[in-house]
Please model this.
Amino acid sequence: MEGEDKVEAAKQRLTDLNPGCQVETFSTALTADNAHEIAEGYEILVDGTDNLTTRYLINDLCVLTDRPFVFGAIQQFEGQVALFDARVGPCYRCVFGAPPPAEHIPVPADSGVIGVLPGMVGLLQAAETLKIILEIGESLAGKLVLINSLTAGFEHIEVEKDPSCPVCGENPEIKSLLDYPQHCGASHNNEPIDLPEGCEMTPSQLAERLEQGDQITLLDLRTLIERDISYIPDAEHLPYHRLREKLDNLDREADYVLFCRAGKTSVWALKQLHKAGFNKVRYLKGGINAWAAAFDSNMPQY
Model:
């Protein structure tokens, strides 16, 4: 019904389907201040969110309280499902690193999603949750499932714990829940990104320059685990969350091409490098996924 609280509408729908189930609702946003209280009494947290702010919050809460995090994400025609449990494998941050700035987070209305995809991802999450409860089957800990609704394809990618992860690594920096809107951006920004002219490079342009033997330094800004999923030969690895501390180790006269998964993090890194005096920096449009689509059909896209 129009104007009805979303969580109450969901509760009514669930109890209509199964009057025997117990549903508790919280008609408030999940924040660092209330997350522990809301999650109290629940052994498993399942991600049904539509924003990165809450996703990083859930992950860190699960790591800090030794709980499994059943992850699901959707965009356009593709989905992802995983079980993140830092006690036995990687957490969400191990795979996806630091959150991007607000202006580089896709706006749901712009990116869109095919209507059947939430159901596909949700059913896999439900199955994973039941496996944990019943202690049956093989869990998705250490695996990331990629779903392509256009090809009906399912791909399993092995992922490992990142020793430098800021929340579950060997020397964790995050020991309590953060003010996530400040770190991730609580809202979306549709303003155009002001970048210098000529800073974009397409996969075909990059391939042409590499074939010519031009002196280009490729910088892979993704996490170590993402690099294990796919890579461009001879690229140097510098995770985005380590960029600031490594600036003095980079040659300001070198010709750099930055790349990440889909291009958004590279844009933000490019802006930082330009401010720091790096003038020969461009980014790979569409990231390594665009490179894979153009030149390597066997390379996983995620």
